[in-house]
Amino acid sequence: MEYSEECVIAAAHPALPGHFPGQPVVPGVVLLEQVLRAATRAGIAVPVCALPQVKFIEPLLPAQPFTICLRSDRPGRLRFECMREGRVFASGLLQTEQP
Known about the structure:
Elements: E1 2-7, H1 28-41, E2 50-56, E3 66-74, E4 77-84, E5 87-95
Antiparallel strand pairs: 1-3, 2-5, 3-4, 4-5
């Protein structure tokens, strides 16, 4: 199974003030929330049991468009990549079942 969707975190998102003043970036937890919402829209079983692997390679700025790509390589596991301008800026693995 593969799924992708375009996203943007609004500059007015309530988690952004104070993260960081003068140079706001999207907190990782907000990005992960978007990944989980995308998984739900893709019909993937939630809740997630574990996030054994997550990498934040580059920051995401408010109002910056990006793409969430999901790929299930076996039941109970979902790999994700968040891409901007053709480059991965965050990636990881979600487990929806106990190993």
